[in-house]
Amino acid sequence: MGLVVMTDPVFWHRVQFGFTLTFHYIFPQLTMGLALLIVILKGIGLRTGKAVWNDTARFWIRVFGLSFAMGVVTGIPMEFQFGTNWAVFSARTGGVIGQTLAMEGLFAFFLESSFFALLIFGESRLGPRRHFAAAVALLAGSWLSGYFIITTNAFMQSPAGYTMDATGTFQVARLAEFLFNPWAMVEYLHNQTAATVTGAFVMAAIGAFWMLRGEHQPAARVSLKTGVVAGFIAANLVAFPTGHMQGRMVADRQPVTLAAMEGRFDSGTHAPLAMIGQPNVAERKLDNPIVLPSLLSWIAYGDFSADVRGLNAFPESDWPTNIELLYYSFHVMVGLGTIFIGLMSLALLWLWRGRLWNARWMLWALTLASPFPFIANTAGWMTAEFGRQPWLIYGLMRTVDGVSPTVHGGMTLFTTLGFAGLYFVLGALFLLLILKEIGRGPATAHS
């Protein structure tokens, strides 16, 4: 069995794309979150006339720039992998997914990069109002880029607006239906609020770090206040309504995925929500479960007595290919999301009481919490992608039918190791540059 896995090209194609995607998405989630927060900082600075808001925005624009550059560098290999690793998939679906990928590159990326250059170099020439407008345009480009990518993914999750000919080749038949796929709309709202959580936690963490060190106090207060308020709002929106809407969408269009996410094998009414447990696929049960009675029925269908089908109601060939990893990814995402709500609620209470600035334990908690939104977002994407398996285009094209027939597993493993080494160097360089910027602080960020 182990030898089969080691030589299976499908396995290694999935590993390589999953690895490069996971590393790449560290950066877009931060830039999309920071783009919104930069607009807020500059907007408040423009309205109040207080220089500290604009000074703080300059610092975060530099952090945005470093993350944006890393996102571009790490995103390029993924584009090539569609042709090198997934040639059959690209040939059959290029008429559909090629549309949104091209739109992302031609419209959103150039909008984002052009106005980012104006933000960095054009403040003195543009003046406060037009510089603020450039920040708004940057936000539009950043979030539009996210929408085109998510629309591409949504077609793979719940295909809409397409036609397929006798050879199995897909083309766009109804552009509006394809671009405004209900799955894309819901997934986009959920993803963007989650990205805002990442940006807010990072902003609050650096503000808290400066407070602990007694450095850059005015900007530290602005970053901490903005991060906590935005983090509280976004963390709640991730859970409800966007997360709830996403759950309903999965229940409606991918019921077998919902069953695997919950480790549910048997069907029945009043379905409980599993808070914890270990899926035992061999014996088709969830070991050591702690559940909330009837809650899954309500989440999935809005009725505490609704019948929720288990995995046994579906052919085993349609089950997600790694139920255990799907189950744990989903529960890590939900568990961390719940912690985020609790932490930001407590921080907001301390902020409202005016005690946050001196509560060192809370400042340390906010500082140390900064990596966890990245983990939660990664777990969320793992949930979506493991849940879609064994399909590339859900219900229409299986993963095993989309790989490049001439690229063997050993070649893919070799290049994956190369990516790992290169990304280690890039990651270390990114951390070094970010730590350098944090040390310099906002006072010298524009010098």
The H/E string reads: HHHHHEEHHHHEEHHHHEEH
Strand content: 5-15%
Instruction: Report the end-to-end length measured between terminal Cα atoms.
Output: 59 Å
| Helix percent band | over 70%
- The total beta strand count reads 6
Brief summary:
With 447 residues, the protein is mainly alpha-helical.
Describe the structure.
The protein is mainly α and 447 residues long. Helix 2 packs parallel to helix 14, helix 3 (51-84) packs parallel to helix 8 and helix 7 packs antiparallel against helix 13. The chain is 73% helix and 6% strand. It has helices spanning 2-7, 9-48, 51-84, 87-121, 123-157, 175-179, 182-213, 217-253, 255-261, 295-301, 323-352, 360-368, 372-388, 409-440; strands at residues 162-164, 170-172, 273-280, 285-292, 391-393, 397-398. Strands 1-2 form a two-stranded antiparallel sheet. It has a domain at 204-405. Strand 3 and strand 4 (285-292) form a beta hairpin. The model has no long low-confidence stretch (mean pLDDT 94).
Architecture blueprint of SSEs:
Blueprint: H1 2-7, H2 9-48, H3 51-84, H4 87-121, H5 123-157, E1 162-164, E2 170-172, H6 175-179, H7 182-213, H8 217-253, H9 255-261, E3 273-280, E4 285-292, H10 295-301, H11 323-352, H12 360-368, H13 372-388, E5 391-393, E6 397-398, H14 409-440
Antiparallel strand pairs: 1-2, 3-4, 5-6
Helix pairs in contact: 2-3, 2-5, 2-7, 2-13, 2-14, 3-4, 3-8, 3-14, 4-5, 5-7, 7-8, 7-12, 7-13, 8-9, 8-11, 11-13
